[in-house]
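Re-running the complex after MR caught last week's input typo. The corrected sequence lines follow. Everything else is unchanged.
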Amino acid sequence: MASLKELAAREDKLTGGHRMCPGCGAPILVRNILLTVKEPVVVACATGCLEVSTTIFPYSAWKTPFIHTAFENAAATISGVETAYRALKKQGKIDKDIKFIAFGGDGGTYDIGLQSLSGAMERGHDILYVCYDNQGYMNTSVQRSSATPRGASTTTEPAGKVSSGKKMTRKDLTEMMVANNCVYVAQSTCGHWNDLNKKIEKAMSIKGPKFINVLQPCQLGWAYPMELTVELAKTAADTCFWPLYEVERGVYKLNYDPKDRKKPLTDFLKPQGRFRHLFKPENKDLLEDLQKEIDEKWALLNKKVQCFGA
Amino acid sequence: MSIQTVAKTGNEAMAEAMRQINPDVVAAYPITPATEIVMIFSQFVADGLVDTEFVAVESEHSAMTATLAACAAGARSMTGTSSQGLALMYEILPIVSAMRLPIVMPEVNRAISGPINIHCDHSDTMAARDFGWLQIFSENSQEAYDNILQAMKICEHKDVRLPAMVTTDGFIISHCMEKIEMFDDKTVQEYVGKYPAYTKLLDLENPITLGALDLQNYYFEHKRQVAEAVKNSKKIILEIGKDFGKRFGREYGFIEKYKLDDADIAVICLGSTAGSAKSVVNELREKGIKAGLLKIRVFRPFPDEEIASALEGVKVAAAIERSDGFAGKGGPLYDEIRSALYDKKKKPLVVDYIAGLGGREITHDHLTEIFSEIGKIAATGSVENPVQYKGVR
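Corrected-run output:
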């Protein structure tokens, strides 16, 4: 794996000057991923924060071929490009090896783009889909998504006098992609650069459909001081709210186990404005329930690693 | 060049045209009555008769998306659809024209739900008329075949660079076996030529950003360019139609005039209805009635000047259209024809007949009645009810 020093010496494919928020985790993970990939790469992107902030005509922050078509179809878009590549390569019109990566937020991936994603993965295209999961529709002012965790306050399921925020547990898209028979599925965060890079390198070495779900704290939607982005991403793994793991052709592997340093979930929730209401006395039971849910999911994941590990 | 006379349905004719074009990528999803196009083409792929990479997508939304993306990558790309499938593509259609991608799509006209119906009308294609796609209607299988080939050249012309849908009427043409002339593969490939690939996302030396956010300061100019390209296409459509005639013996324009030059009364229609209308015109002519037909082949760009000039000497014309605009004042064909005539000094009275929705047959008797009704208008000079529904209970 390339060291940070080596990565820093490579040319950025997502340049500065774009208009993402200060403290946003998305460009951190995108730059990291694109620096890691050694081969030429073509990027497709769903409508969302990343796309609107990096491609305001006549400017573009992308120094690699980039295509955006609509919100719900980044997977179909990259599958079309990858198919054209195969067609042209077969005819000898292209000789280089090119990698194909799609980026979508959780709105464009978990929700409106789920069908397109599932279809593209089932068809077996040689692509990597990266979901930058900030757990809500942040581009349009923090509406709930199916990735929003239970108890979070969003603008379409806000906490109020008779509501304690989102009622339902978030969808587990990572596990859905395992069930979708992706050759490689992983979870990482924008705060674990070395974990993410290892996963990207592995993904690039495997032919077929790959999916990586990268947790990306959003200072706007999660309501925390912008300098905490990386720290919060780390806390998400330390509390087991967002385990770092990978599934290669059905074989589970845990990449990080905090063991006796496992932190309480409140360490992750407390710095975030979207969970502020949970710390009121009337929400004590809910807070305990959320911890229980995380513990159960963590135990289940560990069982999967035991049963379906290498 | 060798010409083979074969029996083909509309769907078979379109699929054969696609085989001969041999596109780099086809991404498609089956939908009645266009399913056969996808099935037949898939068999061509399975039998190694084409070099095409076929993508069996999970929806028409993805079909149009993947076709767009493949075309943007630099590959000649096609798809085909109908009705609900076209409706599912609506979001992506204007993105294709805005990116100026020359995608040719067979579209089999079928009623839009609801209620659900699988048979012919033009409500699907008419709802897609404002997306920057050229629209070419075919009267029969031969025209479907010829139109697909010409559309490739029109769309890929440097002054056009726009997508086109080439339509047939669901079941009436798509499933009707007819005698057609097919050219040999080599002739078609030479005619269509090499794909010019104006947009090349896979050009690593010159990385481009496609689909950028276009705000108040640029969006308008980009849309204006699409409007200009649609206007430019008029000249090219005529040139290519004429050239097709020279090469292959069947010349095409925007419209077809059938016994129209001295006609007092005429009907105007799109697609398969023209076949029945010709036979009714023949009968009326035998009785000494000066009846005629104006068939519109190209609906986008709309040939307003050609239509106005063709109708100059006609006293009363009836638009017969297979879709209702639900505007409370007739359908889209009627609207556009009247708009084309508005500034003209010599023009006919025009009435509208909405007919044949959801596959309801437009019969010989219906057409005879329509001619008789507009004949009365011609005699009295007064229109009592400009918009009528024919064949509805």
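None of the earlier attempt is carried over here. DSSP finds twelve helices and ten strands in chain A. The beta strands of chain A are 41-45, 66-68, 99-105, 128-133, 159-160, 163-164, 184-189, 210-215, 245-248, 251-254.
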